[in-house]
Each structure stands twice: as structure tokens, then as C-alpha cells.
Write a structure and sequence with these properties.
The chain is an alpha+beta fold. About 30% of the residues lie in helices and about 25% in strands. It has a seven-stranded mixed beta sheet with strand order 3-4-5-6-7-8-9, with helices on both faces. Strands 11-10-12-14-13 form a five-stranded mixed beta sheet, covered by helices on one side. A two-stranded antiparallel sheet has the order 1-2.
């Protein structure tokens, strides 16, 4: 398989994510104000600084593609429904974790083509971990800028299973998890899209998300997980897809490392959706 540096666009996006991470860390080192958006989610200067870096960087790449980002005005569905390809960005995923200063936040950049994420980059600015993937070249991890690249992959469902869960949002019901992966599962709380990356590296087995998420929260990490051998499915067992209509909210979903199992049947047996 090709390494990331042999895929020019993926190399460019990885570099851009690191630049956005630097802008975030400049704010992280200071005292910063926290505003609340209309949906009551937090907003900081770091979100806006990363947005500026990414938007300007993508605008200088060829071809120039439409951009959907959490921190930008959204195009209408009338505009979006004709797009074959577009960028989907969360410049700072896990702002609540940023505010808590626990380091569990990421930069997410994805390329969407025909409703699927075909390129994804996830950076954890505090640790320097960079995850990149593109269709056909697999998923790769770089622990620090300039370091070696390691091909990553998921694992077979472990016993006991490790369940990644949100650090700042309510987890799934315990009885549902027991029916899905067994009584003796282990919970691993983690912020932002790092949950997907933990699965992609074979460090966890399942992430079940009940409640709302937006398309920019999942797309980049979904590409990483899929190229590592996993899957992200709605609760009917269908692959999560993007740009489906006016709303940019995802359905509830499950991310899994062992994509070879019959997850639609497991979901039905667990009483989902």
C-alpha cells in the first residue's frame, strides 16, 4: 500500500491540519474567553483561528471545492444537492474538552465524494498524533511531526470488549451495551473524534452514539476507521453517509472495529434502533 507521502493531496491536508493545530495551541496556552453559540455549544478564539487557517489553505488548492464547516455559514440544500465533491471540516472538534484543558480535542478535515468520506485527516494538537487515510491507501498514524508513519488497523472483537464513550456527553444505556458486546465490557471515556482513532488503532472495539452529532464531527474519522478495517453504521446497520438533505445532523450510529461481524443482526438483537 502507498504511504501518505506518496498521496500528494493527503500530504497537503495533513500539513494543513498541523498548521491549524499550531493556531489552536497558541490560544490554548493563554487565558481565553468562551462564548455560547445558539445551540449552547461553546466557541473560543481557537475555533475561529483554526477555521481561518483551514479555509485559506483549502482555497489555495486545486481544484477549489465547496467547503462545509462548523464555523462557517452553511450553504443551502439547494446549493449542496448538486455537489459531487466538497470539503467537510470541524476546525476544533471537542471544544468542551479544550475548555477543560484535558487535551482530548482534534482538527478534522474530510473530503466527501458521492456522499462518502474518501479522504480524512484527524490531528490531536496537544499530543501531535496525526491520523490520515484515503480510499485505497489505508489508514496511517504519525506520533509527532516529522516522525515515522505507521500503518494502523482494527482488531477482532475482544472479550471483554472495550467500549469507547464520550467524555462530555451521556453514554449509551448499559443494558444495550451488554446485549451488543457482553456483560463484562470495559468503558473507555474519550473526547472528540479520538474515539474513532482508538478503534482504528486496535485499542477499542465499539463506540455507540445515541443523540445528535453533526456531519463534520464524524466524516474525517470515519474515513480513518474504514480504511483501518472498521465501519461506521447507522442503527439499522447501514454505512453512515453525508450530504443527504437539508439537515447536517447525523442519525444515531455505531462505530466498530471488527467490520466482519453481522452488526445489523447484533443491532436488532440489542433492540436498536
Amino acid at each position: 500500500m502507498s504511504a501518505p507521502f506518496e498521496h500528494p493531496l493527503l500530504w497537503q491536508i495533513g500539513t494543513l491540519a498541523r498548521r491549524a493545530g499550531e493556531a489552536i495551541l497558541e490560544v490554548y496556552a493563554l487565558d481565553f474567553d468562551v462564548e455560547l453559540k445558539d445551540d449552547r455549544s461553546p466557541l473560543t478564539a481557537a475555533d475561529l483561528a483554526a477555521q481561518k487557517v483551514i479555509a485559506e489553505g483549502l482555497a489555495h488548492m486545486e481544484p477549489v471545492l465547496p467547503l462545509v464547516s462548523e464555523e462557517a455559514k452553511q450553504a443551502s440544500w439547494e446549493q449542496r444537492k448538486s455537489w459531487a465533491r466538497h470539503w467537510l471540516v470541524d476546525p476544533l472538534d471537542g471544544t468542551r474538552e479544550f475548555v477543560k484543558r484535558n487535551g482530548e480535542f482534534t482538527v478534522n478535515i474530510a473530503l466527501i465524494e458521492d456522499h462518502r468520506p474518501v479522504l480524512g485527516v484527524v490531528l490531536a494538537p496537544v499530543t501531535g498524533d496525526l491520523y490520515v487515510a484515503a480510499r485505497g491507501i489505508g489508514a496511517w498514524w504519525q506520533a509527532e511531526e516529522g516522525g515515522d508513519w505507521e500503518r494502523i488497523g482494527t482488531r477482532a472483537l475482544a472479550r471483554p470488549a472495550t467500549v469507547a464513550g464520550s467524555r462530555s456527553h451521556g453514554g449509551a444505556q448499559e443494558d444495550t451495551l451488554r446485549r451488543l458486546v457482553g456483560e463484562d465490557h470495559v468503558l473507555q471515556p474519550l473526547g472528540s473524534s479520538l474515539k474513532f482513532c482508538l478503534l482504528a488503532r486496535g485499542g477499542a472495539d465499539v463506540y455507540l452514539r445515541r443523540g445528535p452529532t453533526s456531519e463534520w464531527d464524524t466524516a474525517a474519522a470515519q474515513c480513518v476507521l474504514e480504511e483501518a478495517g472498521g465501519a461506521v453504521l447507522d442503527l439499522h446497520g447501514r454505512p453512515l453517509r453525508y450530504d443527504r438533505g437539508e439537515s447536517l445532523l447525523n442519525p444515531e450510529f455505531i462505530a466498530v472495529g471488527d467490520a466482519g461481524l453481522d452488526w445489523p443482526a447484533k443491532l436488532r438483537d440489542a433492540g436498536l434502533p
